[in-house]
Structure formats: C-alpha cells, structure tokens
Amino acid sequence: MIEEVLLTMDQKMQTTLDVLKKDLSGIRTGRATPAMVENVRVEYAETTMPISHIAGISVSGSNLLIIQPWDPGTLKAIEKAILKSNLGLTPNNDGISIRLAVPPLSNERRLELIKIVKARVEEGKIIIRNLRRDASEELKKLEKDKEISQDDLRRALDKVQKITDNSVALADEARDNKEKELMEV
After folding, report:
1. Is there a contact between 156 and 184 (Cβ–Cβ < 8 Å)?
2. What pLDDT, on the 0 to 100 scale, is given for residue 136?
3. CATH number at residue 150
4. When you count CB atoms within 10 A of the terminal residue's CB, does the N or C end of the chain come out lower?
C-alpha cells in the first residue's frame, strides 16, 4: 500500500516536471526552435489544434522558422494564430509556407522572460507540494485505519519528503538552465 502511494506520487511529480520542461522550452531565447510555435493553437475546420498537428516546422539558420502546412488552405489560419499568440513574431506568408524571423532579444525582454520562467517554475513547485500533501494525507489515513503502523508512516513520510525535495531540485535546475540560456547573447 505504501509503495503504491509513493509510486503514484513519484509518477505524478515526474509528469509535472515533464510538462514544466516542455513549457519552458516554448519560451523563446535568441535562437529559433520549433518548440516556440508547435503548441500555438490554430482554429481550422471548426476545431482547434496545435500547429504541429497541421504543419511541419523546421529551422533555417539560427533565427528563422519555416512552417509548411500539409494543406495550403491552413496558411491564413496559422498566420492568424501566430499573430494572436503574443510571441512577438511577425509571420511572412509566401503562399506556400510561413517564415518567422526570430529577432535577437533585448536585455529588457530577457529580464521579462526570466520573470515568466520563475513564475512557471513556481507553479510547478506548487503542484509538486500539493502532490506531497495528498500522498501524506493518504498515508495518514492508512495509519488511522490501522492498515500501517506509526513507524511505517514515519518512514513513508520521510520517503515522501525525499521524493518531493528531489522533484523541487529538478524544477530549480530546469529554471537555472533556462535562465542561463536566456542570458546568452
């Protein structure tokens, strides 16, 4: 029972970290990466889907993204979605593909992005701490129902804290790496 609770909590924390890292990869640095736009939602054919589901995204050089839709009819919808996404990128539609020039970041913009990174990492850490609380409550309920002993509970709560500390450290590491990446000129 204890192992199930710990395993479930660990898996949820790992998923939270994966989502956080994916989210951080979408925050743009001075270099062009497909992650910057692949999750921008496009309204087309009465549905909303990420660009990556309706187009190929490639990088040309260090500062140019090329989006080639599989259906040329989606060009206008993709262009509109990019403009609405607040990425600070201006699409250039040539009738076949969309080119996005990624301008170098100003120092002011870098500092803004670092604040965004810190806020998103903090949100992830809150989720991790909530998962810790849920697991602790579940373990305390097992002890209250006499399914585990007090000693087992104490050991399990120590493991819960170790897993939580590790997950928080990984979130901090992801934040530090992204900040370093943003400050590179």
Report:
1. no
2. 95
3. 1.10.132.20
4. C
**What is the span of the domain harbouring residue 15?**
2-25+106-183
- Could you tell me the CATH number of the domain that includes residue 66? 3.30.1360.40
30-39, 53-62, 128-137 — most confident range: 128-137
Residue 63's pLDDT band, with cuts at 50, 70 and 90, is confident
Q: How confident is the model at residue 45 (pLDDT cuts 50, 70, 90)?
A: confident
Question: Both 142 and 163 in a single domain?
Answer: yes
pLDDT at 185: 60
Do 116 and 172 fall into the same domain? yes
Residue 184 is predicted with a pLDDT of 78
